[in-house]
Write a structure and sequence with these properties.
- With 336 residues, this protein is mainly alpha-helical.
- The chain folds into two domains: 216 residues, Rossmann fold (3-Layer(aba) Sandwich), CATH 3.40.50; 89 residues, Tyrosyl-Transfer RNA Synthetase.
- 55% of the residues lie in helices and 5% in strands.
- The chain is built from 14 helices and three strands.
- Strands 1-2-3 form a three-stranded parallel β-sheet.
- The structure holds adenosine monophosphate.
């Protein structure tokens, strides 16, 4: 059985952008394929510590997994849930792959350049985490790794490292499919990018200081509705979908389409030409508030023990699969 692998860092409470752009698409993908694929959903806690943690890491890890469940993840015998740091093979394979990767190719990673920019001294983890990511993927022979566009370069790196290793030491790794095919598999026309509510030229991000710019998944539903009501629009006075000239209104239509799982074309056809922006805002505010109410109610129903139980079961599976692959690698290299 082929494997799909995905994870989301547990550094803080997530935004509506994370929910619509990462969490919900992964949950839908898993629910669609988990009869015929292994679906590995892991919390990359070792990746979390390359940057600041907002709050308590242990609590964040448990909350992140609850987020998947509250977003509708169906867990069956093919869905494996685990914490990266509970599977030591990730760190061990990372070291071996460090000896296959070159300084030059690592220095070209855009994410490294962006994350270290302006820092007097960036930590080595920020430089090296794409190799750990390659280990995360290759240990489970995952062919499909649904990720945002910002991570595509790291998938290419993983493919290169796997091929280089295979050429030198023998066919040990399954090479993940190329990024164009990853996008096809995800079934999205273009990557989802939810915009900042105050400055819709930018993406919604948890690091933006302005509270009204972003909706957090733990915002009270009424508070979130108010943020939508005060979102920046434009002075055209007529609803039209065009991210270039009317990013604010287009963002609201886009959020509506994603939250209600309605094709964008249908949402646009319903609202285009409307001259009262307040009507559209009220409708989207209701969608957001309903979605948050139901999401938060589900979050409250899931106990920490339920999550820990899933982790424990998943970690037995993960250590088994990853341990076997690590042994193959160690033998190929001559360490065993
Ligand atoms: P980050 O919070 O930037 O580490 O991103 C975690 C995941 O959420 C990645 O897959 C991002 O592509 C996705 N994501 C973050 N912000 C947004 C946004 N505003 N719209 C859509 N997806 C997002």
């Amino acid at each position: 059985m082929k494997t799909i692998l995905t994870g989301i860092r547990a550094n803080s409470v997530l935004t509506l952008g994370n929910y619509l752009g990462a969490l919900l698409p992964m949950v839908r993908l898993s629910n669609k394929h988990s009869k015929d694929f292994n679906v590995n959903i892991f919390v990359p806690d070792l990746h979390s510590i390359i940057s600041e943690i907002d709050g308590d890491l242990q609590k964040n890890i448990i909350r992140t997994l609850k987020n998947y469940l509250a977003a509708g993840l169906v867990v069956n015998e093919n869905v494996h849930i685990y914490r990266q740091s509970f599977v030591p093979a990730h760190s061990e394979l990372c070291w071996i792959l460090n000896c296959v990767a070159s300084m030059g190719e690592m220095g070209r990673m855009t994410q490294y350049k962006e994350k270290s920019e302006g820092k007097a001294s960036a930590n080595v983890g920020i430089f090296d985490y794409p190799v750990l990511m390659a280990a995360d993927i290759l240990l489970y022979s995952a062919e499909y790794v649904p990720l945002g566009e910002d991570q595509f370069q790291h998938i290419e790196l993983t493919r290169n490292l796997a091929e280089r290793f295979n050429n030198k030491f023998g066919e040990v790794f399954t090479v993940p499919v190329e990024t164009a095919k990853q996008v096809e598999f995800m079934g999205v026309e273009k990557p989802i990018r939810v915009r900042d509510l105050v400055n819709p030229e930018k993406k919604m991000s948890k690091s933006t200081a302005s509270e009204n710019s972003k909706i957090m998944l733990d915002d009270a539903p009424e508070k979130a509705a108010k943020k939508i009501m005060s979102a920046t629009t434009d002075s055209f006075g007529e609803v039209k979908f065009d991210f270039d000239t009317r990013p604010g209104i287009s963002n609201l239509l886009f959020i509506k389409s994603l939250l209600t799982d309605t094709p964008l074309s249908e949402v646009v056809a319903e609202w285009e030409g409307e001259t009262r922006y307040g009507e559209l805002k009220k409708s989207v505010a209701d969608d957001v508030s309903n979605a948050l109410s139901s999401f938060q109610a589900k979050m409250a129903e899931i106990s920490d023990e339920d999550v820990l139980e899933l982790f424990k079961k998943g970690e037995i599976y993960a250590n088994d699969v990853a341990g076997q692959k690590l042994l193959d690698v160690q033998k190929a290299v001559g360490l065993r």
